[in-house]
Each structure stands twice: as C-alpha cells, then as structure tokens.
Amino acid sequence: MNTEAHYASKTLDDGTAEAASDGMFGWYRHTSGSERRAFWSCKIGYALDAMDTQFLSFVIPTLIATWSLSKGEAGLIGTVTLLTSALGGWVAGILSDRIGRVKTLQITILWFAFFTLVCAFAQNYGQLLIARGLMGFGFGGEWTAGAVLIGEVIRPRDRGKAVGMVQAGWAIGWAVSAGLYTLVFSLLPGDMAWRALFALGVLPAPFVIFIRRFVEEPEVHKQHKQRETEAGHSSSFLEIFGPGIWLTTLRTAILATGTQGGYYAITTWLPTYLKTEQHLSVVGTGGYLAVVIAGSYAGYLCGAFLSDRFGRKLNFIAFSIASMAIALLYTRVPMSNAMLLMLGFPLGFFASGIFAGMGAFMTELFPTRMRGSGQGFCYNFGRAVGATFPFLIGFVAQKMPLGIAIGTFAAAAYGVVILAALTLPETRGAQLKS
C-alpha cells in the first residue's frame, strides 16, 4: 500500500483545511474525559520514565568512588541502557500492535520501575550493568507505547500539541530526579544514598493501577483489531519493510538517527569540553542544570505548538538549524560563566524541542495495523545509532580538538535531519488510516 495516500487532511464542510485550536493549550478544552485520562497517563508515565532513567547520571560520581570504576566502565552503563532501550522500544511497538497500546504501556512501566529497584540491590559493577540494561528495555518501550496511544486518541488538528506536551514530561521527570537526588544525598551518606535513590524508582509501579482502571484503548485500534478478527488474519511487524512502505520506514529511521545523534553529541560531550578546554566552573552546577531543564521544557511546549501551526517538516528543519547554530556557538566562541549560564536555556530549548513533533509525525506516517511496529522501529533505530555518536566523537577527538569534533558531528547529524525531513511527506492534520 502506498502511504502517500494516507495523508489527506481533515476538511470542513466548505472544503478548507481544519485549523488548529487557538493557543498552545486551547485544544485541551475540547477533549473528552477519556482523552484527558489518556493524555495524563502518557505524560505522567513518560515523566516517571525520565525520572528513573536520569537517576544514573547523578550517581555516577558516587559509583566511581565506591567501586573504583574507570570512566569507561561508568560510561558503559549508560551505553548499555541506551542500546537495550532501543531493542525494548521496537519490541514494545510490536506488542502494542498485537495486544494493545494500553496493556503495553502498563507492562513497560512496571518493567522499568521493577528493574530500577533491582539496581538498588546490586552488589558489584556486573550486577548493576545487567540490572540497568534490563531497566533500559522498559524505558525504551514506554515511549513507544505512550506516543502511539496519545497519537491515536487526540483529533488530527491538535495531535502535535498533545503528543509534544506528553514528550515534555521528560523535562519534568528530569527535574524531579534532580530534586530527589539533592534531597536523598543531603540526608544519607553517599554509599547508602545511591541505593536509596534507585529504590525510589519503584514509585511509578502503583500508577499502573490508574492506567488499568481508567484509560481505554484507542477507538481506531479497537476497530482495526475487530476487522482483523473478522477477516481471520493478523498483520506482521515485517510489513514496515514491505512494498509501498519500506521507503517511508527508511527515511523516518534516518530522521530519528539525526535528531538523536545530534542530541547525544551535544549533551554528552559539551560539559566536558566547557570544563576542560574553556575552564568554566558553572558547568554541572545546579543553577546551570536548572536553566537547561527549563529551556528543555519550554522547547517541548513551543515545538509541539509550532508543529501543529506550521507543519512537522518545517518544525524539524527550523529546530535543526537552530541546534546547529547553538553547537557551533558553544564550540567556537569563547565565553564566560555568565554567558554560559544564559546560553543554557536555548541549548535545552532547541536540542530537546526538536523531539516535540516526532511522536505525532510517526503516528501519522504509518497505518494502524503497523503503527506501533513502525514507530517503535524507526525511533529506536535512531536511538541505537545515535548512541554511537558520543563514542565516535571521543575517538575522533584523539586526533582533533574536542570542540571541532562536537561541532562536526552535531552539524552532520542535524544536516541529516533536514535532508530526511525534505524527502518525507507533510502529515499535519492527517487522518489516521488502518
């Protein structure tokens, strides 16, 4: 089936395209009770996912000191988490097509909550590496299930805003994680505090009770499963590589690779560059982190609004250009601590805001029968490949200045995003097809 036929926008009786709701939050007034429950379950679920995931970044210095780890060993924990999350995201996408979006969301939340708790009981590096890898499997799966669920529930003209605001839950979870870290480490000695922090990772588990009781399966998915049952056959996840759709799958995977590769290139190595080569002391402080998180949340919200206002493709292109500029500015212009603190906001804004339209775009690109599989594969293929960028930058930086390596990889990644966006169809306002 040629997917280009799926992108007809919803029209009014006079034949004009349906306009998006007024303002960034005006769409929420038009939602039903079931839509609001789905929205909050996905947003809170993603925030809790981010909270559990970000714990590691705060406890790495303690783990290095406690277990005498090398930086390479500590970094491997993060890499393994990203790689297993990529696999988990793809598997969750397949599951969401088979057993439903809501059930898959429940499973993934329980999974990452349980294995975050298991991390608290690790007795050595090897045990923590395995537990964290298993946690990553659920971390990647939650995004896929939640993005497909909210994308199918919200009406076309507001889908970008709703899905993007769910994505903004990441910044909230990041902030909560930072707050809990500060609290726990102020109350307990380091060798106990890191375990207590991971133990708090079980908190998302009871949230599954709410999802199970109050969140309904999207109507478009229920109708599709009914038709499959009546026809006596079910679709295969391999269909995303089939005739008429494989090229969309390829281009979407490349788009996801560019966005995530650029993000990892900037966020992984910039702090090191600013500390070691520009000798700035504010990097890594609570104030700088707060500014970046605030910029990240604002970027998600604005990106969500703009993707419905001006289209998915233009949004990707604009945020890519801005992210390129920020990367080059950070790595080419000498700056003071005050200037760095001020630039933290646009760094978070553009590097995170580019993701706001991703969930809605992928939901609209794939038909219902393969939507979870397609979205899960493309986003997480990008995550797996993008996760190699920090390693590649570190390798290349042995032969060239670190700032040049960061700027080069970031520019290449966002250039790929622009090229991929130009080749894909615009889907703003598209009706979902089975």
From TrEMBL:
Alphabetized GO MF terms: carboxylic acid transmembrane transporter activity
Keyword Acyltransferase on entry: no
Membrane topology, record value: Multi-pass membrane protein
This protein's record includes keyword Membrane: yes
Top-level taxon in the UniProt lineage: Bacteria
TM stretches of this protein: 75-95, 107-123, 162-188, 194-215, 286-307, 314-333, 339-365, 377-396, 402-424
Alphabetized UniProt keyword annotations: Membrane, Transmembrane, Transmembrane helix
InterPro entries tied to this protein: MFS, MFS_dom, MFS_trans_sf, Sugar_transporter_CS
A Pfam family of this chain: MFS_1
Domain Major facilitator superfamily (MFS) profile: 38-428
GO cellular component terms given for this protein: plasma membrane
Residues in the signal sequence: none
Subcellular location: Membrane
Name of the protein in its database record: Predicted arabinose efflux permease, MFS family
Species, as recorded: Paraburkholderia phenazinium
Organism taxonomic ancestry: Bacteria, Pseudomonadati, Pseudomonadota, Betaproteobacteria, Burkholderiales
